[in-house]
Write a structure and sequence with these properties.
Elements (H helix, E strand, L loop, with lengths): L25 H14 L12 H9 L9 H29 L1
Helix pairs in contact: 1-3, 2-3
Length: about 100
């Protein structure tokens, strides 16, 4: 489509963009970069971090599931990636509190 511009989407509902501190550790920089990349993603299928075949086999383990679309696989994979990032971030925060 000529002349159309894509509307920049903000962070997912419930998530607020967080500015990176000047003295951020390498892991904090990595997580911040990954979260920015996820927020700017327009085509989920091209940037999956988990294998689609593994996600499908896990989804097929439910006896009620008959067919699985490629979009559903991409969304579940991205949700799993966000979950792992969030758990890592919270563990890092907790580690900083315990020191």
């Amino acid at each position: 489509r000529a002349g159309t511009t894509k509307k920049k989407r903000g962070p997912p509902r419930g998530m607020k963009p967080v500015a990176l501190r000047d003295n951020a550790t390498p892991i904090e920089q990595f997580i911040h970069g990954r979260m920015e990349g996820i927020e700017q993603t327009t085509n989920l299928k091209q940037c999956l971090k988990f294998p689609a075949a593994r996600i499908k086999s896990i989804m097929r383990a439910d006896p009620h599931v008959r067919m699985i679309s490629a979009d559903a696989t991409a969304i579940v994979s991205k949700a799993a990636e966000l979950f792992v990032l969030e758990v890592t971030k919270r563990a890092l925060d907790r580690l900083g509190e315990d020191r």
